[in-house]
């Protein structure tokens, strides 16, 4: 113990508080188990208290700034992401009339899955470069990945057309969807959601007009959608052309040491796409009311992203606010519960509105209610997923998603005949609840460790 105290002397004398010491101990590889087995203290926090006592630190506990005021403009931008995710749905009826129902469903699944993984990987690498102080390399990577996304989406759609006999309109649909996904990801990266909204609003308006007027508006709607998507893509690429100061390494050198984690990041994005899209695929052409069950979740995703960011800020503020390490563990759990509650509550409120609307339209079914409930659960699950990704727990994330998606897929494949919508959505609700529990279990292993919130 004396040896440890002496080793930590310099850290303790300059530490802001006991949590700082606890975080340093954790970074040295000292876990709660080591604190118990080797030093006889119940956990790292108790060990940190003892180290401070033995060193005789006389440094006053500094009342650091608790947290920055919430920047509501930034918060509104994050919350608005849900609307931006939902906006393309306004043009789906016109797109279905143009390319056909089968091509639309194949295109949404194919381009949705590829775009999810491709955009997720590109954005992750761009944030890594930005974090290392290389905004120019990040911009170059985003521009290249955006250009490459289109031929990849087109090539995959051609294969699907040849193998399934779907119409070649699918190729156009896949190209457009890839362009929109890359444009939206890029504009959100540069915090220019306003430009995305401006570019896509005309498309959404004509999409609604098509629903009202019908076929006479079809070609006007399609032309406007193409113009809006291309405009969003061009505007997004222009963001990468802004002049950057200073000399930067190339992309490969800038990402040195990061490629080890990239396969796990891509696997996580792929499994998330499988988990999300496979549950919708059976109902794209048959049961609109079940498909609409995800609308509350998609709309609430902006709130989920906002709270996931705020949680990191609030956790860091909590580290500076508490006086004793033990206070941190209890309060961080309260903070987590409050944020998960906000995500679940917003999604539940939107779900109630949707269910009333379905009832008014005489479209409410038990399967639609169950699928809507699944979306509410996933709002809390995705919040935990964002935080676990921040902690680089990709192994657990991938394993959990594979298990839960596999559970639902196995039920579908092993059922005699096609399962009823109610049975299918009920199993999916069960797999969503299991995913929530698994993510929460992973969070419980690290939530109380100060170093993950520094």
From TrEMBL:
It comes from Tenggerimyces flavus. Keywords: Membrane, Transmembrane, Transmembrane helix. This is Uncharacterized protein. The chain crosses the membrane at residues 82-100, 106-127, 139-162, 168-188, 195-213, 219-238, 259-278, 290-308, 328-357, 363-384, 396-414, 426-444. The keyword Transmembrane helix applies.
């Amino acid at each position: 113990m004396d040896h440890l105290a002496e080793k930590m002397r310099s850290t303790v004398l300059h530490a802001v508080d006991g949590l700082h010491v606890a975080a340093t101990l954790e970074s040295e590889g000292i876990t709660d188990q080591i604190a118990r087995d080797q030093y006889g203290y119940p956990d790292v926090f108790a060990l940190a208290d003892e180290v401070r006592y033995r060193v005789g630190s006389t440094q006053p506990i500094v009342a650091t700034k608790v947290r920055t005021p919430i920047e509501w403009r930034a918060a509104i931008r994050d919350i608005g992401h849900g609307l931006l995710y939902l906006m393309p749905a306004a043009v789906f009826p016109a797109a279905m009339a143009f390319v056909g129902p089968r091509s639309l469903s194949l295109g949404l699944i194919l381009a949705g899955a590829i775009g999810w993984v491709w955009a997720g990987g590109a954005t992750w690498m761009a944030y890594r470069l930005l974090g290392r102080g290389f905004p120019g390399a990040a911009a170059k990577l985003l521009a290249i990945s955006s250009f490459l996304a289109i031929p990849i989406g087109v090539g995959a759609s051609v294969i699907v057309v040849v193998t399934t006999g779907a119409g070649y309109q699918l190729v156009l649909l896949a190209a457009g969807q890839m362009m929109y996904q890359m444009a939206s990801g890029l504009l959100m990266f540069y915090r220019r959601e306003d430009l995305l909204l401006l570019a896509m609003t005309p498309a959404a308006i004509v999409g609604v007009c098509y629903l009202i007027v019908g076929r006479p508006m079809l070609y006007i709607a399609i032309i406007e959608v193409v113009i809006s998507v291309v405009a969003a893509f061009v505007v997004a690429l222009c963001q990468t052309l802004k002049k950057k100061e200073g000399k930067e390494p190339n992309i490969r050198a800038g990402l040195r040491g990061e490629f080890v984690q990239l396969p796990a990041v891509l696997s996580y994005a792929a499994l998330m796409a499988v988990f999300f899209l496979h549950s919708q695929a059976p109902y794209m052409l048959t049961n609109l009311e079940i498909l609409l069950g995800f609308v509350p979740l998609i709309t609430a995703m902006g709130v989920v992203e906002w709270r996931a960011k705020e949680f990191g800020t609030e956790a860091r503020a909590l580290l500076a606010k508490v006086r004793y390490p033990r206070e941190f563990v209890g309060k961080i759990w309260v903070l987590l519960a409050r944020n998960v509650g906000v995500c679940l509550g917003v999604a539940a409120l939107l779900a109630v509105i949707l269910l009333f609307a379905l009832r008014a339209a005489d479209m409410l079914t038990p399967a639609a209610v169950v699928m809507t409930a699944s979306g509410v659960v996933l709002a809390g699950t995705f919040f935990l997923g964002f935080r676990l990704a921040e902690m680089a727990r990709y192994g657990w994330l991938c394993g959990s998603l594979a298990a839960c998606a596999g559970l639902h897929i196995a039920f579908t494949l092993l059922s005699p005949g096609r399962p009823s919508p109610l049975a299918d959505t009920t199993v999916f609700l069960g797999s969503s609840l299991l995913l929530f529990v698994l993510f929460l279990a992973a969070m419980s292993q690290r939530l109380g460790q100060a170093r993950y919130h520094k």
